[in-house]
Structures are given as C-alpha cells and as structure tokens.
Amino acid sequence: MITNFEDFCLCVYVVVDDLWQPLASAFHRPGPPPDCSDGELIAMTLIAECKGWDLETEALSNWQAHRDLFPMIPEQSRFNRRRRGLSQAFELIRRCLLALLDLAQDRQCALDSLPVPVVQFHLVPGATGDWAEHGATFGKVSSKKQTIFGYKLHLLVTLSGVILDFTLAPAHASDLTVGAELLREHADLDVIGDKAYISAEVAGELSAEHGIHLVTLPRRNQKRQLPPGVARALNSARQIVETVNGQLAEQFHVEINHAHTFWGLCTRLLSKLAAHTLCVYLNRLFGHPNPLQIKQLAFPN
To answer: How far is Cα 274 from Cα 49, in angstroms, rounded to an integer?
Structure first.
C-alpha cells in the first residue's frame, strides 16, 4: 500500500528498474557508468511528471530535498542530455506496462485529440526553433474555439482509461485523417469517436480491412439518428477519454510546452504518457477501486 511520497518513489523505482534491466543493453554507451544510473534518472523523470514538476530547474530543485531517495542528482544540462538520449526508453517502458496491464486488453476504445501548442499565437512570426521544420502548423481547436500553432496529440484510449496508442500530428491535420491512420495500426476493436470522425467510407474500410468497428454520434442534421438509449451510452463511454484528456492537461500539463526543440517536446510527451500509464498500473497493482484516480498517487502535497 502506498501511503506517502516516499512509498510512491520506492514503488516507481522498483517497477522501473525491473522493466529497465532487460532494455538497458539497447541504450549502452561508452565510458564508465554514471553516478546516477539510467534507471534512477528514468524513475526521477516519471515521478516529476506525476508531480507536475515540468521545468527541469523545478524538478532538480525539488529532488535536492529528497537526496535520501536519489542521492546522486545530475546537474541540469547533463540531466537534459541524458533524458533526451533516453526518450525512446520511456516509450518502451510504457509498452512493457501495457503488456502487464489487464485493462490494456480491453477491445472497446475511444478516439480523441487534444492540442499541443508550441509557441503562443502572437509570438509565431518571430519564433525561433525547428517547429515548422517538423510539421508544426496553425490549426483550429473547435472544442476550445481557438487557433493554435503546433500539433495535436491523437489518443486511442480503452474504455478502462488506458492509453493504448497515440500519434502527434500537425495542428491543421483533420482528426478523421489522423485517427484513421492510427486505427490502421490495430485490429478487431470497437472504437467510439465524436462527430469529427464521421465518414461512412472510412468506417467501411476500417471494418472490412482491419475488423475495426468505428461508431460515431450522428450530427443533428443527419436523417438517421441513434436511439436515445444508445446515444446516452456512447456519450457516457466517451467521458472516459475526456477524463484521460483532462488528466493529461491538468496534472501532466501536456498542453504547456517548455521545450525549445521538436525532439525536446517528443521526450517530454513520451515521459508524460509513460507516467500516466505507470500510475494506472500502480493503481491496479494496489487494488484501487477506480484505476483512473491517478492523481492521488502523486501526493501533490
């Protein structure tokens, strides 16, 4: 049972270290091993994401008060370089956790996206960095009635609240186009989408070629409407992905960008998504009645 922050850190480190050992050889680098091991650095990063310590300066400053947990804390530039060098390690650990999670075997999912702005709208003309080079564009976010410069994070989430898959796409790309590409990587799923995913042609192709049943709520002006009970059930199921989106935005601050480069952004996103999956795993491991109540595990106080 996790009762305090120290317990949480210990659990995260044990889980991460167990998963990391068979993966470590793929990330071998020359020279003597660092004082702060890769397993410790990955665990520190995931814990910081759970706590909402987005800035490296903030995270490292907070870790100074917990040297009893992680005695060797890298200086900022070295921490930054090593974390970027381990960016794919976060995704591998997330996939390992998915393999251990029974909830990840759920074949009923929901599809949605959330904005990832990288530069404030009025600062785009004078912005530096490699954003445009890596596909950042202007795009509208209908749910928030705003235009952003950056990307959208498209999520495939099981109805038990586990992020099964994701992709990062330019902000202007349509949800339907990107969502269909994401679903083509899977098979035999029942997927609920909002009105942005309405397309009889795409739904037919996904069903015929991939065994994916894409269900969407019809628009109000469409002649064929779903029975009220079915519509309520679909809306209720879609609340799961809205909950996950809210967690990513409010606790993990996915919509706030502190990275200066595209690869820095990717590293941060991969670590945040891995941290989310880790929290669901720990909730499941310790028998929490609601695996989506992940905020309690981070002990923000």
So the answer is: 9
